[in-house]
């Protein structure tokens, strides 16, 4: 194990996969100079400018070219710089990449990864701060991944590059410098498997991306008050690990979802609805969701903070769910 | 008259008729495939919209015979002709239009989403201009592989007003890619005249402004299209980078097979009918001394073939409903229930 940053872990994942498979290449703006956050630093020196390709500011063509190249026996990794900019390439991703295999009757696949950094970070304001993972989870054909730790960024990006489906890979900008233990040997994390980041008997807290960390910190604070929260990091939003979530809620009887994205029609709604449909009789409290209000992310910190789900809100929600429910009969009695 | 068209007429006396008879046959195949499909739509056998290319056959037939099977072609919603010319099976295509299990795409795509990767046909496309960036990416991959195969991207004049036109042509020039762009200019953006929607002098000037050698040809003259395509394709294959060809033609039907096209007058349509690309090739072959019976034979054979295609497609099986869930994705493919 070595202590590595989230950014360095993603860098290593791409480097290892490009070494392993010469069909893997990356394209996007400013990649030769390391990419906007340094995720590609030095890679053009290693792999040359035909495999680390600097592109024009042409998001539609970056994505469309990746679709055509993926149909032609290469495995492109697309860098979109900010998730927000990928909206200039929605046709290419949603109408083309996601549907080609199906529309053409399974004649081919579109093995591409599109990296779309998400999230609130340093007063980036409304066009550089969004978390739009739910949009893509809604689209048949796409896999959607949102890693939260360095080890997962290594293992999930490698799995995404090896996946034959188009994968929307959403790193969180506020995590680039986040450090954690990462295996030094080959490390792959399967797509579609959640991680129980912390075990707990009282409340299941489902989260992903950067909210994992606030959720874990809050869970420790709540443990000091005698409430044990089970924190599940989904890691992959499509397919989401329904089995792990449902098994946990069966044990705890309570579900809270914490997400950075706008709560309205966010992915938390899918989890809440599934749990309500499936485990209604087992619930000891109504399901709860925490997420951003339906307002754009503002620039000034006091305004930006209004969008964030705070630890206090998580505490309040968890305490409320455990207080308002009928007292549970402890397991085994 | 363009240089290529002039050259074609000058040489009509010594045309390579053995090479051109298959071109005539191909044009009849396209024409009759589409006439069969239009009739089948009236009978309810073709289910969704079809966008015929009747009158535009010289573009597909002038370009595609100059390609190898390994060359890659990207087409449009008006793509039956291109797809047939690249070598796709007409019966499988007709079954696709009828939504049958043995259609080119198993009945999942229909007219606007026919692809046949086995013959290098990477797909028609339901979104105008979307095939340009995909074609550029295919060419990018070919260049990375040091292949001397090329990509050809055919689109309509409506596409030149979309962003991917600019982005894709610029990209092809920046990376010096082996791609031929063909603007099949039938004068209409769906049901509105493209010239009323287009600033500046048009497609060729736009391509040239991005550094691409560009040429305009009479798109109803298959000899001219063939000559221009051959020159361009040879140059691209030899590493000359992207090229652009604008083929001016005319759509004899409406935007779709059921569009009565009341936005244009009958005299205009009749004028273009006199320039029918099939009749023009027959005229050239006649001048070159080709026997009338041999030309008639191309038509008759295509007619009989399409009658057979029609009958077999009509009797073909529907897809198993379970196929609706197949080939969505490997990871997280949906089960047969709301998830």
TrEMBL record, chain A:
UniProt-listed Pfam families: Transket_pyr, Transketolase_C
Keywords on record: Oxidoreductase, Pyruvate, Thiamine pyrophosphate
Cofactors (names): thiamine diphosphate
**Family annotation (InterPro entries):** THDP-binding, Transketo_C/PFOR_II, Transketolase-like_Pyr-bd, Transketolase_C
Residue limits of the Transketolase-like pyrimidine-binding domain?
4-178
One GO term in the molecular function aspect is:
oxidoreductase activity
This one is known as: Putative pyruvate dehydrogenase E1 beta subunit
Taxonomic lineage from the root = Bacteria, Pseudomonadati, Pseudomonadota, Alphaproteobacteria, Rhodobacterales
TrEMBL record, chain B:
- Catalysis performed (reactions): N(6)-[(R)-lipoyl]-L-lysyl-[protein] + pyruvate + H(+) = N(6)-[(R)-S(8)-acetyldihydrolipoyl]-L-lysyl-[protein] + CO2
Domain Dehydrogenase E1 component stretches: 27-321
Protein's GO biological process: pyruvate decarboxylation to acetyl-CoA
Tell whether Oxidoreductase is among the UniProt keywords: yes
Q: Which CDD domains match?
A: TPP_E1_PDC_ADC_BCADC (cd02000)
Cofactor(s) essential for the protein: thiamine diphosphate
Report the leader peptide range: none
Record's keyword terms, sorted? Oxidoreductase, Thiamine pyrophosphate
Which InterPro entries did the record assign? DH_E1, PDH_E1_Alpha_Subunit, THDP-binding
Task performed by this protein: The pyruvate dehydrogenase complex catalyzes the overall conversion of pyruvate to acetyl-CoA and CO(2). It contains multiple copies of three enzymatic components: pyruvate dehydrogenase (E1), dihydrolipoamide acetyltransferase (E2) and lipoamide dehydrogenase (E3).
The name this protein carries in UniProt is Acetoin dehydrogenase (TPP-dependent) alpha chain
| Gene source species | Pseudooceanicola batsensis (strain ATCC BAA-863 / DSM 15984 / KCTC 12145 / HTCC2597)
Organismal lineage = Bacteria, Pseudomonadati, Pseudomonadota, Alphaproteobacteria, Rhodobacterales
């Amino acid at each position: 194990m070595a202590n590595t940053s989230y950014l360095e872990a993603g860098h290593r994942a791409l480097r290892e996969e490009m070494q392993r498979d010469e069909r893997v290449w990356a394209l996007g703006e400013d990649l030769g100079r390391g990419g906007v956050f340094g995720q590609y630093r030095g890679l053009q020196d290693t792999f040359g400018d035909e495999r680390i390709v600097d592109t024009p500011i042409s998001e539609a063509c970056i994505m469309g070219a990746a679709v055509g190249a993926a149909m032609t026996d290469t495995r492109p990794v697309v860098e979109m710089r900010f998730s927000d900019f990928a909206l200039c390439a929605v046709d290419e991703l949603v109408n083309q990449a996601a549907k080609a295999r199906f529309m053409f009757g399974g004649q081919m696949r579109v093995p591409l990864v599109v990296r779309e950094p998400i999230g609130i970070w340093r007063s980036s304001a409304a066009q550089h701060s969004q978390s739009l993972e739910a949009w893509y989870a809604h689209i048949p054909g796409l896999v959607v991944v949102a890693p939260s730790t360095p080890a997962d960024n290594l293992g999930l990006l490698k799995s995404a590059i090896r996946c034959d489906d188009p994968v929307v890979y959403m790193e969180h900008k506020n995590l680039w410098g986040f450090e954690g233990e990462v295996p030094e040997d080959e490390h792959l994390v399967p797509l579609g498997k959640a991680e129980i980041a912390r075990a707990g008997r009282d409340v299941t807290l489902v989260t992903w991306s950067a909210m994992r960390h606030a959720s874990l910190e809050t869970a420790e604070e709540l443990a000091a008050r005698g409430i044990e929260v089970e924190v599940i990091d989904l890691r992959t939003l499509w397919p989401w690990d329904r089995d792990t979530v449902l098994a946990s809620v069966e044990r705890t009887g309570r579900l809270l979802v914490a997400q950075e994205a706008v709560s309205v029609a966010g992915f938390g709604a899918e989890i809440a609805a599934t749990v309500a449909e499936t485990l209604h009789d087992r619930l000891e409290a109504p399901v709860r969701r925490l997420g951003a209000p339906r307002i754009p992310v503002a620039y000034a910190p006091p305004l930006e903070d209004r969008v964030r789900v705070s630890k206090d809100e998580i505490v309040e929600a968890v305490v409320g769910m455990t207080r308002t429910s009928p007292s549970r009969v402890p397991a085994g009695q | 008259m363009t240089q290529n068209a002039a050259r074609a007429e000058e040489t009509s006396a010594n045309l390579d008729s053995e090479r051109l008879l298959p071109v005539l046959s191909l044009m009849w195949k396209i024409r009759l495939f589409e006439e069969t499909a239009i009739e089948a739509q009236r009978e309810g056998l073709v289910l969704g919209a079809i966008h015929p290319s009747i009158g535009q056959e010289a573009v597909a037939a002038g370009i595609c015979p100059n390609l190898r099977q390994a060359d890659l072609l990207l087409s449009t919603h008006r793509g039956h002709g291109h797809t047939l010319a690249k070598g796709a099976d007409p019966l499988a295509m007709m079954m696709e239009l009828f939504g049958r299990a043995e259609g080119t795409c198993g009945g999942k795509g229909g007219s606007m989403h026919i692809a046949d990767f086995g013959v290098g046909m990477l797909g028609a496309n339901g979104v105008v201009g979307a095939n340009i960036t995909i074609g550029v990416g295919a060419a990018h991959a070919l260049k990375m592989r040091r292949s001397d195969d090329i990509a050809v991207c055919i689109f309509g004049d409506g596409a030149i007003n979309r962003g991917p036109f600019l982005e894709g042509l610029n990209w092809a020039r920046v990376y010096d890619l082996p791609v031929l762009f063909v603007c099949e200019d039938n004068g209409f953006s769906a049901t509105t005249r493209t010239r009323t929607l287009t600033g500046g002098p048009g497609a060729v000037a736009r391509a040239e402004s991005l550094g691409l050698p560009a040429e305009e040809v009479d798109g109803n003259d298959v000899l001219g299209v063939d000559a221009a395509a051959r020159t361009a394709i040879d140059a691209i294959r030899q590493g000359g980078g992207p090229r652009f060809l604008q083929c001016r033609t005319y759509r004899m039907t409406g935007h779709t097979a059921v569009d009565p096209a009341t936005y244009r007058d009958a005299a205009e349509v009749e004028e273009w009918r006199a320039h029918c690309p099939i009749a023009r090739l027959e005229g050239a072959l006649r001048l070159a001394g080709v026997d009338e019976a041999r030309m008639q034979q191309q038509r008759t054979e295509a007619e009989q073939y399409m009658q057979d295609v029609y009958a077999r497609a009509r009797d073909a099986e529907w897809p198993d409903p379970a196929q609706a869930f197949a080939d969505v994705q490997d990871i997280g493919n949906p089960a047969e229930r709301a998830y």
